Amino acid sequence: MQEKNTPLYEVFLRPRNGLAHRHVGSLHAADDEMALQNARDVYTRRGEANSIWVVRSSHIVATPPSDRDMTLAPSDPERKPYRHPTFYDIPKEVGHM
Amino acid sequence: MPIDPQVHFGYLLRLADSNLVLGHRLSEWIGRAPVIEEELALANIALDLIGQARALYAHAARIGGGGRDADALAFLRDQIDYRNLLIVENKNRDFAHTIARQFLYSAFAELYWDALTASRDTELAGIAVKAVKECAYHVRHSAEWLIRLGDGTQESNNRAQKAVDELWMYTGEMFESDQIERAVLDAGIGVIAIDLKPAWNETVEPVLMRATLQRPKDGWMMSGGRSGRHTEHLGHMLAEMQFLQRAYPGQQW
């Protein structure tokens, strides 16, 4: 089947109520309805989900790799370590956080 | 009204055989499907059908298998002893044919299982409860494909129409009635298939319309599967499916 007839979709599953949908992979499908069916058949064979999202890959807006220095590098922990709460001791009574 | 165990056994075999044969036909697509997504979809449906068949064989074996277990019923009977509907043994042709075959059969099977959930045979009713959900998806999946093939390109429309035309003469057999069916109906175990025909039409016709396909006329209908008179396709399929158990008897998973 030709790529233009079966565009790429990204698949997101939510395993349980209260959790967020997580990206699990992608697939090709003729349209939205078939993409949902394919997602069910390809990614939920072992009861992994109680909700499925699919979205056309081309509809995802992504950060361009070329802009990485501008958009993502400034929050690099090496450069702004004070944004990470690692400068104080947690009292023992608190236990694991 | 009590029922002869052999009649009960024969009825369960019919249901089991149709599911096993169609499940095996779908499994023949593995490695050959048009796209990987659809290959998994067909394999999933095949597994559902084989699972239904397995439960039915195990139940049948307890009722009247004469010491045979589910494997013996599946792998050690010849085609003349198989009781499946002819539509499911139709050999695989193109993808449109497989989808049309699935749709016409599953639309029937979903209704049939739904009716069987009220069976007085509680084991059978239990199998039906699980199967009806699986079949609902088989109908959905095959219907959506048929709509896209029929209402797709000229080529896919031609192929889908040809498949529906070729398969139509096997649809009458699904609604046939005979002594076994009347006996299980009287015993509160079985279903009278002809009563399901209007609902089947209500499932099938709108899908054909949306698929821009012509519903064939109800002309001459081919039958015989339930009395062991099969098309030439089944023997070849069983030869391949049963080879291992025949050549190396007693093999187990």
Describe this structure in words.
The complex is a heterodimer of chains A (97) and B (253). Helix content of chain A is 16%, strand content 21%. With 97 residues, chain A is an alpha+beta fold. The longest helix of chain A has 12 residues. The radius of gyration of chain A is 20 Å and the shape is flat. Chain B is built from 10 helices and no strands. Classes of the chains: A alpha+beta (97), B mainly alpha (253).
Which shape of chain A, going by the Cα principal axes?
flat
Count every helix of chain A, treating DSSP H or I runs of 4 or more residues as helices: 2
* Total number of strands of chain B: 0
- Taking pLDDT < 50 over at least 5 consecutive residues as the criterion, the unreliable ranges of chain A are none
Q: On the 0-100 scale, what is the average pLDDT of chain A?
A: 88
Q: How are the strands of the largest sheet of chain A arranged?
A: 2-1-3
Gyration radius of chain B (Cα, Å) is 18 Å
Q: State the distance separating the first and last CA atoms of chain B.
A: 40 Å
Computed CA radius of gyration of chain A, to the nearest angstrom: 20 Å
Instruction: Decide which structural class fits the backbone of chain A.
Output: alpha+beta
Give me the number of helical elements of chain B. 10
* Unreliable stretches covering 5 or more consecutive residues of chain B: none
Q: Greatest contact pair?
A: A-B, 15 and 14 residues
Overall geometry of chain B comes to globular
Class from secondary-structure proportions of chain B: mainly alpha
